[in-house]
Write a structure and sequence with these properties.
This protein is an alpha/beta fold. Helices cover about 40% and strands about 15% of the residues. The protein has two domains: about 15-60 and about 305-410, Aspartate Aminotransferase, domain 1, CATH 3.90.1150.10; about 80-300, Type I PLP-dependent aspartate aminotransferase-like (Major domain) (Aspartate Aminotransferase, domain 2). It has a seven-stranded mixed sheet with strand order 4-10-9-8-7-5-6, sandwiched between helices. A three-stranded antiparallel sheet has the order 11-16-15. It binds pyridoxal-5'-phosphate (PLP).
Length: about 425
């Protein structure tokens, strides 16, 4: 029998069944949209999902083969060092130099169970209760939860399409208080696909150094840039930042390896040591088979990555063109990652098929029910009035889905 709602029966003072800390965590909106789309699909409805942030390609064969060999080798059936296999750490050191020009040592690396664990552990390691984290919005939906769970407070800086969804140093400075400890930086960005220029990255990094603000820089989309845009690593742009900077990365997006769960943190040795202690009690080593697969990914050729990138680039152009043709929708051209972030504010306050549309959340619900297309509303990213569409799906589904949504939205009055 279940306990009475809200509290366990423990004498006179009822205690909440779930702690306030964990009870306050919101469900991941992106995963929720994806789950709803999959449930409707399972009912036989032809839903096209633009919700999930994962490549539709299989992991390249050489990586899968390395994992198969690793699974057959008993040495991988045992616990391994909590901080990561030494061979993988060495591969991360070499890859970081190759891809971003950042020179690091192996004791600055902690291998994590996906980039998500790297985000959580970074904030848990850096923040004390009351510390503030400047968080430019639109932001990836996990950041505010990870900050809050670590006892920190997100100080959100809202940006819009007029600045390519990137904050200026002036905006960051206006959000800085004596409690500010960290700036979260994500370029190329999820959800907007914005890529910060070298000038902006340098200016922001210099502002951080001058004001003693740490930078947590999420570089997981570093390989996915288009139209000549360049992903600039924050501590490379401003080398003085190295001692107060944590770089987050992983194999998920670059190598179509979302299910393998390998990410990492790169930071100063004291921070990495502390985070490794945390991980040693939390989850220990990442699955050895996945780590061996990641070694193959990082030491192998980038040809498969280039091929995926060409497909993303083609889909990016298609989605921007189709979205821009819908009345009431404005879509800047993203320069990185695999997301479009159109402004749908032109459709708010209207009616579609007898339903009044007040917010982008309402609009996304109508689009899912009536057009059978799943998108994530901007509410999930701290900026209501927008949609995020991942274009990491097949060309055919992409065209059919956006066309279907466009036909529905054209009915708005
Ligand atoms: C900006 C950003 N950082 C980190 C991650 C974490 O990826 P994973 O945990 O799959 O490695 C994601 C995934 O959506 C992301 O979009």
């Amino acid at each position: 029998m279940s306990a009475p709602t809200g509290s366990a029966q423990t004498g006179s003072a009822p205690k909440p069944r779930v702690s306030a800390r964990i009870g306050g965590i919101a469900e991941s909106a992106t995963l929720a949209v994806d789950a709803k789309a999959k449930a409707l699909k399972a009912e036989g409805r032809p839903v096209i999902g633009f919700g999930a942030g994962e490549p539709d390609f299989p992991t390249p064969p050489a990586i899968v083969e390395a994992a198969q060999a690793a699974a057959a080798d008993p040495k991988n059936h045992r616990y391994s060092p909590a901080g990561g296999l030494p061979e993988l750490k060495a591969a991360i050191v070499a890859k970081t130099k190759r891809d971003s020009g950042y020179e690091i040592a192996a004791n600055q690396v902690l291998v994590t169970n996906g980039g998500k664990q790297a985000v959580y552990q970074t904030f848990a390691t850096l923040l004390d209760p009351g510390d503030e984290v400047i968080l430019p919005a639109p932001y990836w939906t996990t950041y505010p939860e990870a900050i809050t769970l670590a006892g920190g407070t997100p100080a959100v800086v809202v940006t819009g399409p007029e600045t390519d969804y990137l904050p200026s140093v002036e905006q960051l400075e206006a959000a800085r208080t004596e409690k500010t400890k960290v700036l979260l930086w994500c370029s190329p960005s999820n959800p907007t696909g914005a890529v910060a220029s070298r000038e902006l990255t340098e200016a922001v990094g210099r502002w951080a150094v001058d004001n003693g603000v740490w930078v947590v820089t999420d570089e997981i989309y570093e390989h996915l840039t288009y139209d000549g845009a360049e992903a600039v690593s924050m501590p490379v742009a401003v080398p003085e930042l190295a001692d107060t900077c944590v770089v987050l990365n992983g194999v998920a997006k670059t190598y179509a390896m979302t299910g393998w769960r390998v990410g990492w943190m790169v930071g100063p040795t004291d921070v990495i040591k502390a985070a490794t202690n945390l991980q040693s009690h939390l989850s220990s080593n990442v699955a050895n088979v996945s780590q061996r697969a990641a070694i193959e990914a990082l030491t192998g050729s980038l040809d498969a990555v280039d091929e995926m990138k060409r497909a993303f680039d083609r889909r990016r152009r298609t989605i921007v063109e189709l979205l821009s043709a819908i009345p009431g929708v404005e879509c800047p051209t993203p320069k990185g990652a695999f997301y479009a972030y159109p402004d749908v504010r032109g459709l708010l306050g209207k009616e579609i098929r007898g339903r009044h549309i007040e917010t982008s959340l309402d609009l996304a619900a109508v689009v899912l029910e009536e057009a059978e297309v799943a998108v994530v509303p901007g509410e999930a990213f701290g900026t209501p009035g927008y949609f995020r569409l991942s274009y990491a799906l097949s060309d055919d589904d992409l065209k059919t889905g956006v066309t279907r949504m466009g036909e529905l939205l054209a009915e708005a009055k």
